């Protein structure tokens, strides 16, 4: 029996089953201990102290106590601290992106995904490079600057060479004032050499969802294909970071196993990356099981309620304050609105989860979707909604392009210095969107937001440069960044 070792390269040791069970038992035993919960909150609250070197993280055990807490007043304090930490680290900025599905060919047998190899009903498709260009033009014409590419695992249809060629096509496609400036990659676990090639191709963040950290459940849900190897999949982020990819993203599909188990495993994974590489996850995604072709959520009794979902988001924000948190269009407008203020910092907008879904919006194309989209609004409608809620929609990709990745990015985030870059970059990319793509109603709201935010920039030099660049954008110039 393996023992828990946060620095171990072995999955069974850094995501240790016995440690998770002990953690859950401890949290259950202390779920009514308000004094303990408040002491944990006090530790997390040090991140708000002006002179503090931000970035204090809670252990998976401490965070699990907060998640299990049943005291209504303490739970209210949890939500408030999550709001305060979100504001301290991310202000009112929300980064926008879109997924781009390249291919739904897949050799894996994942029981929760309609791409599984035995599904004969879903139309299979792989985009040609010309079709990828058409997708990118459609995305650029919406206003997107940041994409996350997605593809099923299939060594014949979707080899690494196809992914690399697709990245070159995406970065090389320009239409009008459009440009994709950052491409994150959400593709199957691969070798260290392949990660080096992805790094050389200039991906932003390498994203890989664990799906479930419970090994027995993982093996039950993945009966066939390369993904059936739990250790190979779970250790993928280590190989990516060893290959030089600075920014990696974690995620778990809530609903496949008990949420408290998954929550503890997710935080243990974040602790492991921090302990072994000195850099925790750049992002954490929080998808939950939802309906899709050939998939019925009734088959997954561990599916979580909206209330539990919101609490998970709040406690992750408190426990790992430096990480970006992502929510997709699996969630409805109402659900997304409820978690924006307590933790989420990145959302997708105008998304299609089908292969070829941006350039071709026929019903047949949507039949190839990986999951059902709950938020069907256009990107412009999402931008307007964010502005109405008081957020600054951001299309910023500056940190990645300026080399502020990995430990360099984290040190700026943890000390609060990143705000001198992020806020002006958000305002300048918002201005680009307003000039090139926004509806008149959205443009009016956006200009009002910019006029409000610029005077609030505390650094006089940054404020002066921002004002100059905003004027230049209005005159037709593009791509300014700090």
Rg is: 21 Å
Strands, count:
11
Could you give a short account of the major beta sheet?
9 strands, parallel
The percentage helix is 40-55%
Structural class: alpha/beta
Number of helices: 21
Shape: globular
Q: Please state roughly what percent of the residues sit in beta strands, choosing from under 5%, 5-15%, 15-25%, 25-35%, 35-45% or over 45%.
A: 5-15%
Instruction: Extract low-pLDDT stretches.
Output: none
Distance between the termini: 50 Å
Mean pLDDT, all residues: 93
Multimerization status = single chain
Q: How would you concisely characterize the structure shown here?
A:
With 482 residues, this protein is α/β, with parallel strands linked by helices. The chain is built from 21 helices and eleven strands.
């Amino acid at each position: 029996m393996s023992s828990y070792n946060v620095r171990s390269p072995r999955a069974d040791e850094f995501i240790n089953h016995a440690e998770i069970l002990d953690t859950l038992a401890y949290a259950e035993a202390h779920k009514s201990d308000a004094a303990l919960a408040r002491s944990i909150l006090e530790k997390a609250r040090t991140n708000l102290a002006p002179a503090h070197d931000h970035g204090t993280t809670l252990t998976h055990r401490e965070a699990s106590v907060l998640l299990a807490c049943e005291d209504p007043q303490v739970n209210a304090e949890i939500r408030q601290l999550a709001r305060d930490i979100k504001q301290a680290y991310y202000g009112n900025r929300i980064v926008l992106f879109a997924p781009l599905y390249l291919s739904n060919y897949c050799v894996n047998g994942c029981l929760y995904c309609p791409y599984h190899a035995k599904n004969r009903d879903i139309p299979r498709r792989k985009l040609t490079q010309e079709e990828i260009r058409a997708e990118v033009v459609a995305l650029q014409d919406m206003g997107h600057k940041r994409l996350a590419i997605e593809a099923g695992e299939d060594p014949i249809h979707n080899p690494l060479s196809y992914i690399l060629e697709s990245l070159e096509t995406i970065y090389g496609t320009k239409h009008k004032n459009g440009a994709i400036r950052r491409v994150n990659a959400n593709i199957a676990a691969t070798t260290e050499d392949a990660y080096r090639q992805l790094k050389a191709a200039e991906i932003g963040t390498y994203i890989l969802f664990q799906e479930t950290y419970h090994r027995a459940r993982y093996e039950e849900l993945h009966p066939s294909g390369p993904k059936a190897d739990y250790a190979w999949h779970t250790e993928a982020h280590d190989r990516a970071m060893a290959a030089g990819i600075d920014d990696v993203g974690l995620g778990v599909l809530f609903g496949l196993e008990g949420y408290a188990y998954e929550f503890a495993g997710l935080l243990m994974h974040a602790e492991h990356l921090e302990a072994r590489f000195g850099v925790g996850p750049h992002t954490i995604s929080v998808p939950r099981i939802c309906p899709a072709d050939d998939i019925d959520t009734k088959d997954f009794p561990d599916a979580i309620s909206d209330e539990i979902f919101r609490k998970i988001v709040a406690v992750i924000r408190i426990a790992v304050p430096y990480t970006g948190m992502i929510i997709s269009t699996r969630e409805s407008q109402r659900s997304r609105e409820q978690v924006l203020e307590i933790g989420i910092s990145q959302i997708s907008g105008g998304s299609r989860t089908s292969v070829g879904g941006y350039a071709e919006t026929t019903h047949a194309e949507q039949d190839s979707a990986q999951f059902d989209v709950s938020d069907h609004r256009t990107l412009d409608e999402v931008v307007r909604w964010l502005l109405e809620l008081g957020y600054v929609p951001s299309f910023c990709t500056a940190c990645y392009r300026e080399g502020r990745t990995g430990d360099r990015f984290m040190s700026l985030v943890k000390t609060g210095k990143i705000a001198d870059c992020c806020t002006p970059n958000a305002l300048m990319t918002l201005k680009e969107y307003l000039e090139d793509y926004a509806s008149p109603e959205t443009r009016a709201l956006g200009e009002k937001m910019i006029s409000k935010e610029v005077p609030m920039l505390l650094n006089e030099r940054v404020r002066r440069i921002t004002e100059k660049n905003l004027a230049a954008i209005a005159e037709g110039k593009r791509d300014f960044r700090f």
